Structures are given as structure tokens and as C-alpha cells.
Amino acid sequence: MGRGAGRGRLMRMTDADKPAIAVLGAGKIGEALLSGLLTGGRRADELMFTERHPERATELTTRYGVRGVDVATAAKEAGVLVVAVKPQDIEPLLDELAPVTDPSKLIVSLCAGLPTALYERRLPEGVPVVRVMPNTPMVVGEAMSAISPGRYATAEHLAVVEHLLSTVGTVVRVPESQQDAVTALSGSGPAYFFYLVEAMIDAGILLGLPRAVSEKLIIQSAVGAAAMLARTGEHPVILREAVTSPAGTTIMAIRELEKHGVRAALLAAIEAARDRSQELGRAHDEN
Fold first, then answer.
1. pLDDT band at residue 13 under the 50/70/90 scheme
2. pLDDT value at 7 more than 60
3. Which of 26, 83, 84, 100 could form a disulfide with 51 if both were Cys (CB 3.0 to 4.6 A apart)?
4. CA-to-CA distance for 71 and 51, rounded, in angstroms?
5. What was the pLDDT predicted at 263?
């Protein structure tokens, strides 16, 4: 069965407007997606989620008005099944999904490192899978998501996922071979920025500023710098040079960053994240 498998069924599913969406695993990224979808205009009755812990399920239902269900109910009622469990929890979930899933369902994997081939081996033949690497700014509608089709996913499946994720941020298509690099760069990327902002806030305190003032200065500077990058289209080097006067304060700071190997440390850190993403995928090669 080839790449076009399931095409007609998905067309019938989407003819009724928007397919119901089930988020399988309501951890941080699962909740971020639910929250973002609701903010982006999805109705609560179009959404559902699965969650192993009853207290957590009650909390989410109270907070968002979205009902918690079991995997079998999600597979029966939803046209799009978004897998948002931790990679180490994927095996028992696939065991539950295999007998209740068919090619009329679209599987959207948000699990770092897990290839579409894993799902295709474990689920019935022809089930379309789209691999996604999102990030946590999804909760404020500013996610960066990269999507890749599996063997049975069509252009229409990709369009469904693009439409779904465009309500919570920006979407790009990449070959699946690039997903581990995406995971390291944008998937983990917000953590790098938070780490840097945390250090800069501490620096402000070290220099004698109150914490609240230091936080406000740095957070707004980060927001403004990101907006300049997004809106001007200028290369970061050009924007940095515009702040860097000869013999000024900025060049002295840049010299210290270079002296302490900050650029090299970032490159090494992102490579390490890429390597870990690859390891997560290889852990399931035999399953």
C-alpha cells in the first residue's frame, strides 16, 4: 500500500468541516496544544484528551471545558489523533491504538525523536502519520512547528496538520531526515532563550538592580529584539553591529562572550540535543 492510502476516507472525514481532535497525553505540550487550539477558535466540544492520572484529567476539564476520554473512545470519535506522550511511553500507547485505529484516522506525532516508521510498523497498514516538532510557545499562540509526512500521508493530510498548527503559531515543512536537527534547534530552543534571560536577569541583580526592574528590562529587550529580527528581515549580524559602537560597552561585552566560548558552547549544546533526539528514535528500532 503506497503514499495515497487512506486519501478517500480522510476526504469524507473532513467534508463535515473540521474533524474532532483528540490529544493523547495531556502533559505540558498536550495542554499547550489544547489551550492554543481553544484560543485559536476551536470549540471545546471539538476537542478531547486522554490522561492517565484522574486528578490531572479533572483539572484540565475544569480549566478548559474539554472532556477526558480513554484511548478507544478517542480513536472512535476523533478524526485526528495527536500523540503527545513522552517518547518512553509510546509503546503501551501504540499497543492500545493498534486494535482501534484504521486508515481513516490521521496520526499526528508530537513525540521528540520518534520516526513515522515506528507508527507504521505498529499500527494497521495504511494509517497516515505526520511527524511534528513543536515547541512550548504554542501556549501563547507563538509556536514554531516543523512537519514531515510519513509513508502514507498525503498532501491533504499535511494541509490538515498545517491548518491545525497554524492556529497556534508558524508551521514549516521539512524532510523527516531533518527532524532531529529541528528538535535540537527550535524544539528545545525556548529553553536556551530562557536560560540566557535567566542569566541576564541575575547579571542585573549583580550590578545592583532590583529583581523586578532587571526582569522587566531583559524580558522587554528580548521581546523587542525578536520583533526586530522577525519584522526587519535583517541578518542578526547586521542588527548586532548596529548596537556595537567602536570602543563602546557592547563590543566589550561581546569580547567577553567570545573569550568564554559562548558561541562554541551553543553549537555543542545544540549538537548534543540533536544526538539525543536520534538516540530516542533508535531506542525503538527493534519494536
1. very low
2. no
3. 26
4. 9
5. 96
Between the CA of residue 3 and those of 98, 155, 282, what are the distances in Å?
Answer: 19, 10, 24
- Type of residue numbered 282: R
Q: Domains for the chain: give ranges and CATH numbers.
A: 7-179 (3.40.50.720), 189-280 (1.10.3730.10)
Dihedral of the alpha carbons of 169, 175, 177, 182, in degrees to the nearest 10: -20
Q: What is the pLDDT of residue 12?
A: 39
d(CA 184, CA 133): 10
Structure pTM? 0.86
Nearest to 114 by CA among 219, 24, 3: 24
**Distance of alpha carbon 212 from alpha carbon 105, whole angstroms:** 49
Write out the three cell numbers for 263.
558561541
